[in-house]
Write a structure and sequence with these properties.
- By secondary structure, the protein is an alpha/beta fold.
- The protein has a single domain, classed as TIM Barrel.
- It has ten helices and eight strands.
- It has an eight-stranded parallel β-sheet, with helices on one face.
- Helix 9 packs across helix 10.
- It is globular and about 50 Å long.
Amino acid sequence: MSSSILIGTAGWTDQTLLDAGWYPPQADTPQRRLAYYTTRFPIVEVDSTYYTPLAERTAQLWVARTPDSFVFNIKAFSLLTGHPTRPAAIYKELRPATDKRNVYLNDLPPKVIEEIWERFLSAVDPLVAAGKLGALLFQFPPWFTIRRPNKQYLLEVTRRCAPIRVAVELRHSSWFSDDNLRETLSFFKEHAIPLVCVDMPQGYASSVPPLLETTADFTVIRFHGHSTKWTSKNIHEKFGYLYSYEELASWTPRLRELARQADHVHVIMNNCYADYAVRNAAQLHELLGEAAVAAPGAPSVSRQ
């Protein structure tokens, strides 16, 4: 089996990217920046939807402003992945009356939970209808361990989202320990759930290994970098890492192997600081050559 590889970045509007001068002067509005981005890459991961749920109108605008073949991966709202969520981020009519700084899904009544799921999924309908939704990324927190209730929740997520693809990123080492790895892979393969491969700093409580396994016909690889400040609360210190050309070159045979095992491979550079992500994405595209799908007008790049 052989498949093409889509390479892109996690977002296109980071302020440090704008300050880096990657966009030409005429790309001076969000619409024009998105248009420019689509000439360089065939896919983007939208991470802002983790903090604030996607609005259907926004999805409609993205459909209208991007080429027919362009793909969006949408990161799931924090509330749906067990992360603490500001009440103000929840849909206005569904916000709980609370003084808590953060709430969790279980703090809400079942009817409200159902409505949140309904709105979350209906917002991506325009992308689904246009064939532009690649997957919904569910990134779970470091305390989401390998235990039965969590496995059941993963099945609930895939059931609710079906037939939309779901990609799952885990951040607790219990899923990947010597004793549990076989169980984890069996579970994901049995239910055809794509398990996201991550490249990230090692040696931290949230560190997981770069497991190169395809558990479904679709796979996602996310590059988080190797910052020495992974525990920093400053997101740019945490993800501000520029991969060397040699580091990326060492990944190309592994990515080609994944492409032989899966029908669809999405590679997302999440080292979003300045122009690091776009620069590395372009370099990786060049390294992979014909295996990577180019966007119209994508320039060739050098080692520098």
